[in-house]
Design goal:
9% strand; elongated; two-stranded parallel sheet
């Protein structure tokens, strides 16, 4: 088979496996990546994600990661939601989980399918192929742009004319040389909806993201307490934030009739905060079995849930918060202090402080009891 025939057959197989987009780029198609990455690292936009700096050389150049790579096959899987994620922000009693995390971990779903396609590449070309799904130092979005799948929008997420901002991406590096697709031109125009909707002003400029202000970074990657300045803005977002994706006007062209492999689990569409805050570690692991949410661990998850409860304006949840004021983990205790001081009456909050502060040995939790807090309800 010619390279063109091989690609046609690979595209056909990818479609049958549930992939919605397929494109090819040369491994050296983006010589600008090291400079772009250096700008982000110099400005410390990566926050506590030290691994980004540690892997910068390999991340910025596919051939630094694997010198034999000649072509990069980029694939995308549509995970567009069947409801508007922004509507869930108006339901303060539920925990809002990012659309991508409402079912099985996409790494597990996609990797097996990519391995099958990579096996076909090896068989039909005689050349080696390697599979990457987000966990390796690969800049998938600019490579997908070079492969013609879409373009990086002003929110830095890949945007597709067919699937809007809702594509999982996977990459196959190969030593085979395939004809490359034309890169997709940036097509955002004057639109800045994704920038304007951001609740924490995480975009220093179009096409730039400061992770330190991004709610998805803060409630997933960040290991410590949520900074006070972002807690109210977090609302009921307990895992990730879809605002900039959901508002993208290109989403209206996404075909919801396309066969989607990762529809949301019903119990993850709108879980009640009152139920989530009562999960112990075993219950958390069981409830989020096979979900990417499980990776952040019980303590960070409850931290997020308690911040959401503090934003709920529901004093009926105070007894559930009180049960966490003596939690063994200071990350949970600190978030519980903030939440209870938001919802309880001044008198009740003062009584709780008298009951817990004297025995509190963690300085960060002590600071939560002493910090100024704006109540979420009238006392």
């Amino acid at each position: 088979m010619t390279e063109t025939d091989i690609l046609a057959n690979l595209r056909k197989r990818a479609t049958s496996l549930g992939f919605s987009a397929f494109g090819v780029a040369r491994a050296d198609a983006r010589p600008d990546l090291p400079g772009k990455l250096d700008t982000a690292l110099t400005h410390h936009w990566h926050g506590d994600m030290a691994w980004m700096a540690e892997t910068a050389e390999r991340r910025g150049d596919p051939n630094a990661l694997w010198p034999e790579a000649r072509s990069v096959i980029m694939l995308g899987m549509n995970y567009g939601p069947d409801t508007d994620p922004l509507a869930d922000l108006e339901r303060p009693g539920i925990g809002n989980i990012s659309v991508y995390a409402r079912n099985r971990d996409y790494h597990d779903v996609i990797k097996g399918k990519l391995k099958e396609i990579a096996g076909l590449v090896r068989r039909w070309t005689g050349e080696e192929a390697k599979v990457f799904v987000d966990t390796a130092p690969v800049m998938e979005k600019p490579l997908a742009e070079a492969a013609g799948i879409g373009w990086q929008g002003k929110h830095t997420v890949l945007v597709s004319r067919e699937f809007g901002s809702w594509l999982f991406l996977g990459a196959i590096f190969t030593a085979a040389e395939f004809p490359a697709d034309e890169p997709h031109p940036e097509s955002c125009g004057n639109c800045r909806r994704c920038l304007d909707i951001c609740p924490t002003n995480a975009f220093p400029a179009p096409f730039q993201l400061d992770a330190r202000r991004c709610l998805s970074y803060l409630n997933i990657e960040h290991e410590g307490p949520i900074p006070h300045e972002f807690r109210v803005a977090m609302g009921n977002r307990i895992y990730g934030c879809d605002d900039c994706l959901a508002v993208c006007p290109w989403n209206k062209f996404a075909s919801l009739t396309h066969e989607m492999k990762l529809m949301a689990r019903d119990d993850l569409r709108a879980p009640a905060l009152a139920d989530l805050v009562q999960l112990d570690d075993d219950g958390f692991r069981a409830f989020f079995s096979a979900s990417p949410v499980k990776r952040i661990g019980h303590a960070r998850f409850l931290r997020n849930v308690l911040i959401a409860i503090g934003n709920s304006s529901d004093p009926g949840l105070v007894p559930l918060i009180e049960a966490r004021l003596a939690d063994p983990d200071p990350l949970i205790r600190g978030a519980a202090v903030w939440a209870v001081r938001r919802l309880a009456t001044d008198a009740h909050a003062h009584a709780l402080r008298l009951a817990f502060f004297a025995d509190e040995g963690d300085i960060s939790v002590q600071a939560e009891w002493s910090a100024a807090v704006q109540p979420a309800r009238a006392n």
